[in-house]
Design goal:
Layout (H helix, E strand, L loop, with lengths): L6 H16 L12 H11 L7 H24 L5 H26 L3 H11 L3 H11 L3 H27 L4 H15 L4 E6 L10 H4 L1 H5 L2 E7 L2 E3 L12 E6 L1 H11 L2 E2 L9 E7 L10 H4 L1 H5 L2 E7 L2 E3 L12 E7 H11 L3 H5 L3 H15 L2 E4 L3 E4 L1 H16 L1 E2 L2 E2 L4 H34 L2 H23 L5 H11 L3 H10 L4 H26 L1
Antiparallel strand pairs: 1-4, 1-5, 2-3, 2-4, 6-9, 7-8, 7-9, 10-11, 12-13
Helix pairs in contact: 1-2, 2-18, 3-16, 3-17, 3-18, 3-22, 4-5, 4-19, 4-20, 4-22, 5-6, 5-7, 5-19, 5-22, 6-17, 6-22, 7-18, 7-19, 7-21, 16-17, 19-20, 20-21, 20-22
């Protein structure tokens, strides 16, 4: 069996067995990808080793793609209710960190082991990566491995019992959330209007300023028997039928400007069509709609934008983003020209350009080496993990630099992220495996009750403050808790209890913030 000592063979063996173990479900619970860590701990105990370079490669790929995935959500999270959710996330992680520090003052665990339990209770693999990076201790992965199942099961149990403890009617919470959602994010719809305002008869759209007054988009006009896509110089006359796309509130404004709405549909002429197009041309990415000016050059209008599953009403200041799906309307011949201009190449969107990935990771490594003084008390370094995460966040936000597109397709990001995570878990587990039995013998039951406390205390603190101080909808609150605890199984519990996306939206809002905060607190726990 000497061939098992070959690092790459051991790597494939551990990952294969770990994936199989992770798919086994007991009472609905499974280890998922963390099964690789448990297999590597066991085989590491029996002497199997994987070269340490696999660890660094894996963690850099994993954390950088996490940043790329979370970038837009990270910055958008500061808008509207996001600030409140982020503050609650900070309270939950801060409570976990403070509890971990206080417990360790009395128990006296190894620093690496303690920070591993902290990240395991929060089920945060990026936090574990940062802890190992700073502490240089393989015991961190032991603590993580022991605390992780406690953290996962604890969050699931608490999410099931909290509504009963706090006497929450989840059905009413869902109705309240949906009602608020309609107010904050009104649905885009289309209406047709009969022009009957004598003050605008015979004027062009530019002079009438329909978009500026109503924030609606004019998709097409019927003048007599003629149907056409308008541009800024198109004239409208009393008796014309005009079709607008916008929110219900904005369409009401159009009634005052244009005339009453009618049920009449504007038929598509032989030369007129509507088409969905993918943005894949790198040359127009980040350019504004006004700058590209499809209306003036091609007499084609962008009617609707789909970005990350969300409908957006286009404005002149809106910009094209790689991977957007836009609805365009106009003459058939011109639509083909515009499709070529915008790209509409699904293959290009799904392809993975490795230059931005490795260039971005290299930038993250360099950023992680910069020492930052904190109030003259100590210096703080982001390290490889923190640097890669921050660079990923900002590059995802920027989207494009010259000819380089920083955005990754969802499928490419997921593949690279999982591959990096598999390399990381397999390698770190074999490094820690040789010490796992000794650690359990030395600390025993202490590790389990510490893990339970670090899961229960922050969840309860977050639930009470979120509900009674911040007055959050309970479904949103559960999303904040699971996002902060980076608990995907916990998110699954929320989705099983409600058909709304309240939990998922809150989860996505705080998740990137939580990743950064856990990494920072992990490093502080090692330093102090």
């Amino acid at each position: 069996m000497e061939w098992l000592n070959e690092g790459y063979i051991a790597l494939f063996l551990i990952i294969t067995l770990g994936i199989i173990l992770g798919r086994i479900k007991i009472f609905g619970f499974s280890l998922d990808i963390s099964g690789v860590l448990f297999v590597s701990l066991i085989l590491g105990h029996f002497g199997l080793k994987i070269p340490p370079d696999f660890l660094q490669v894996g963690v850099l790929l994993f954390v950088f793609t996490i940043g790329m995935q979370a970038g837009s959500g990270f910055f958008e999270a500061f808008k509207k209710q996001g600030r409140k959710l982020i503050l609650l996330s900070l309270i939950i992680i801060g409570t976990t960190g403070a509890t971990s520090y206080l417990i360790n003052m009395f128990v006296g665990l190894d620093l690496g082991l303690n920070v591993g339990i902290f990240t395991g209770a929060l089920t945060s693999t990026p936090g574990l990566a940062a802890a190992i990076d700073v502490s240089q201790s393989p015991k961190a992965s032991i603590g993580y491995g022991l605390a992780y199942p406690v953290g996962v099961i604890g969050v699931i149990v608490l999410l099931n019992v909290l509504p009963k403890i706090l006497r929450i009617n989840l059905k009413k919470e869902e109705e309240d959330y949906n009602l608020g959602l309609k107010k904050d994010f009104p649905e885009a719809m289309a209406k047709t209007f009969l022009i009957s305002n004598p003050n605008i008869d015979g004027k062009n759209l530019k002079d009438i300023q329909i978009r500026q007054i109503t924030a609606c988009v004019v998709s097409r006009i019927k003048h007599g028997k003629q149907v056409f896509t308008p541009n800024a110089n198109s004239l409208i006359h009393n008796g014309d039928i005009i079709r607008l796309v916008g929110t219900e509130e904005n369409l009401e404004k159009a009634t005052m400007l244009l005339g009453k709405s009618v049920d009449e549909k504007i038929p598509l002429s032989k030369n007129y069509d509507i088409k969905w197009v993918w943005i894949s041309n790198k040359k127009i990415v980040n350019k504004s709609y006004k700058e590209v000016s499809l209306s003036n050059y091609y007499n084609v209008r962008v009617v609707k934008i789909k970005r990350s599953g969300i409908d957006i009403i286009p404005q002149p200041t809106s910009s094209f983003k790689f991977g957007d799906k836009v609805m365009i309307a106009g003459a058939k011949g011109n639509l083909d020209k515009v499709s070529k201009l915008l790209g509409n190449d699904t293959k290009k969107i799904s392809e993975t350009d490795f230059l931005p990935i490795f260039l971005g990771i290299l930038g993250g490594i360099l950023l992680g080496k910069i020492e930052i003084p904190i109030f003259d008390f100590f210096t703080f370094k982001l390290g490889n993990t923190g640097g890669a995460l921050i660079i990923g966040l900002f590059l995802s936000r920027i989207g494009k630099t010259g000819p380089i597109i920083w955005n990754l397709s969802a499928s490419a990001n997921l593949l690279i992220r999982k591959f990096g995570l598999l390399l990381f878990l397999a390698t770190i587990g074999t490094q820690a495996g040789s010490e796992v039995v000794e650690t359990i013998q030395n600390y025993g039951f202490n590790l389990l009750w510490i893990s339970a406390i670090l899961t229960i205390v922050p969840v309860m603190v977050g639930a009470i403050i979120g509900r009674y101080v911040f007055k959050l909808n309970f479904l949103t609150l559960m999303g904040v808790i699971t996002g902060t605890m980076t608990s995907t199984p916990g998110l699954g519990v929320i989705q099983s209890k409600s058909e709304s996306n309240a939990g998922a939206v809150a989860y996505a809002t705080v998740y990137p913030i939580a990743l950064v905060l856990v990494i920072i607190v992990s490093q502080l726990l090692v330093m102090f």
